[in-house]
Amino acid sequence: MTQIISFKLSELAAEFAATLPECKFESDGTDPIITGVAAIDKAQAGEITFVSSSKFVARLKDTQASAVILDQKTPSPLPCIRTTYPRILFAKVLEKFYQPPTPPVGIHPTAILGEGVELGTNVAIAPYVVISDRVKIGDNATIYPHVTIYNDVVIGANTTIHANCVIGDRTQIGANCLFHPSTVLGGDGFGFEISPNGTWYKVPQIGHVIIEDNVELGCSCAVDRPAVGVTIIHKGVKLDNFVQIGHGVEVGAHSVLAAQVGLAGGVTLGHHVVMAGQVGAANHIHIGDGAIIGAKSGIAGDVSAGVTMMGYPVVPEKDWKRIVISERQLPDLLHTVRKLEKRIAELEAKLGE
User: Fold this and answer.
1) Cα–Cα dist 111/49, whole Å
2) Which residues of 314-344 are buried (b: 16+ CB within 10 A; e: fewer)?
3) Are 259 and 241 spatial neighbours (Cβ–Cβ below 8 Å)?
4) Confidence class of residue 3 from pLDDT cuts 50, 70 and 90?
5) Whether residue 52 has pLDDT greater than 80
6) How far is the CA of 29 from the CAs of 109, 218, 250, in angstroms?
7) Catalytic sites, residue numbers
8) C-alpha–C-alpha distance, residues 187 and 148, integer Å
9) By percentage, how much of the chain surpasses pLDDT 70?
């Protein structure tokens, strides 16, 4: 039987007040028992909900939720927990009520381990995992089914690798990392040179990949190793699904790359860079600390620190907005030009008489 988890709203507020600024319980005198979390239009009595945008505030009067998580200013008809960081509080409350199931600690009988494998304490190895020679896995790591780990890989403590991931040889992975299904680390970089006879000659990719602590990679990401040297993803980086990290790339600490971003070989990112979906970067360019790149942008040259760029090729955000507005005016502008051309032709004809 599933155990029902419940907390008084005031208890939740008190627990999180130690880590979140100005986190406080607010009520008209009631202190509801919270048994779960739900969206504002699906919540039932006993559940707490979350308002993330002003457009949802009006729904508070109709929700069946018993409580709500809010910022410091939004009025509430319900008992609530207020904080300066409501999204962070929402995430912490979710963690209280949901812990994902994990494989049992130990090695499943169908798993295959090579020679010289070293496992820390409380490691969980699920069915059909293949671990090659001399692999080292830290304490409390979890390896889900059908993961393949090549030779001489090092995996830090508390790291979770989900189903069907492939970890190439000599890859180094830090602690507290999370890799979602079907991601590949340490596959060959895309290195080919044209031969005199017109065929492509493969350049051996003998480098390796380094993933530092607290990195999360989405489903079906690819982080390629270079011909020589390393491809490195620094601490705290978060990649969405289908992100391509080319050979020899360096992704700075705490950068965030959304779905389908592609970085060509040798690209370097500073720390806290943000790239929206489908951004592409040409090889061997540098993107400075804290730069923000809008969706579907193409980056052909270096980008300075702290700027927001958009478009193809990228330009400063304010210029991009002017370009978009101008493009929408092109049909009218073309019509005006043609009228002016016709008028000039008529005037020239009169002058010539």
Assistant:
1) 42
2) beebeebeeeeeeeeeeeeeeeeeeeeeeee
3) yes
4) low
5) no
6) 56, 44, 54
7) 247
8) 12
9) 99
